[in-house]
């Protein structure tokens, strides 16, 4: 089975900017330009960034909000205008022209939607925990400790966590909002950009106004869990997301091929409706080098979707979705990303802390070393007693 690496153009938007942050060492030039502006490598996590959403900018407003946490101390309390100017100078140094054009086109696309599409269910656009989540999930998140999380989460397979999450009414509202958005696009002949390279159907929720609500979902409800369950795998430092809907069944996508997500942590919640099939099949965690290697029996795990129930897994946990053979299945997917984790991985060649093949190879090397050492010891003892 050969594997596809899922991606989306939009998803990559924030990455060059954060790469800029990492390269911002005094005296260091990138792309031929030297900026006197500097960013700190480690973000100030508890800094509350401004919103740049309503401004007409040549970079995505969310990039400015993310980068604000990397500002040097003397800039943190500057006016929004000054921070904007400072960050823009850095972005212009680091972002290649093609990415800038892509970003500009994407902004025009979302601007077109935001100024023409009228939301059907306004209550979806602001985070309302008691209306969105089931009480047990809410309580566990507000208790905010490993025991409270473990009391609502099952781990049916190592690295795959499932839990009851969404209220049925929230699922219905979101489904009807997506239908309304698609109806609007159909009526106005507006070409929707699909969530990623593997789906012909589905919608990016961030593109029609749900970005802020989903950022809250990521920060306040998913990060607490991923900090505990995926601490070493980017879960402690999530700072971006790509939120979308996938749709399967008659006149929709049928299944989803074997792939890894362009995400560090993936949240996948079934919204309904009624369907048969559509199981997720998981086949082990892999780094780039081992992405197409065979799976072994211990890596095989299948999961059946249940409306309202969430699955949380690492993006590099290879998976796919079987055919939805009857009915209509719709899932909410939130690809969460940690720029800090991604940068760290760029300088590594051993991924034995998470790639199953790297782990097996490391164990094999250790076993061989032990065998050789024992043999040497055995020989030495033999010689000593001869
Ligand atoms: O269909 C599903 O539930 C899986 C979706 C998925 O893996 C993805 O969109 O990355
Ligand atoms: Fe996926």
Shape: globular
CATH architecture label of the largest domain: Sandwich
Which distinct ligands sit in these coordinates?
A: 2-oxoglutaric acid, fe (ii) ion
Strand content: 15-25%
Number of helical regions: 12
Q: Report, as a whole number of angstroms, the end-to-end distance.
A: 56 Å
Radius of gyration: 23 Å
CATH topological fold name of the largest domain: Jelly Rolls
Domain Fe2OG dioxygenase: 239-338
Cofactor: L-ascorbate
Protein name: Fe2OG dioxygenase domain-containing protein
Keywords: Dioxygenase, Iron, Metal-binding, Oxidoreductase, Vitamin C
Give the topology.
Blueprint: E1 4-5, H1 15-23, H2 61-68, H3 73-76, H4 80-94, H5 97-116, H6 129-132, H7 135-143, H8 146-152, E2 154-157, E3 160-164, H9 168-187, E4 203-204, H10 211-229, E5 240-249, E6 256-260, E7 265-272, E8 275-277, E9 280-285, E10 300-303, E11 309-314, E12 317-321, E13 324-337, H11 339-346, H12 356-385
Parallel strand pairs: 1-6
Antiparallel strand pairs: 2-3, 3-11, 4-5, 5-13, 6-12, 7-11, 7-13, 8-13, 9-10, 9-12
Helix pairs in contact: 1-4, 7-8
Bound molecules: 2-oxoglutaric acid (AKG) and fe (ii) ion (FE2).
Cofactor: L-ascorbate
Organism: Arachis hypogaea
GO molecular function: dioxygenase activity; iron ion binding; L-ascorbic acid binding; oxidoreductase activity, acting on paired donors, with incorporation or reduction of molecular oxygen
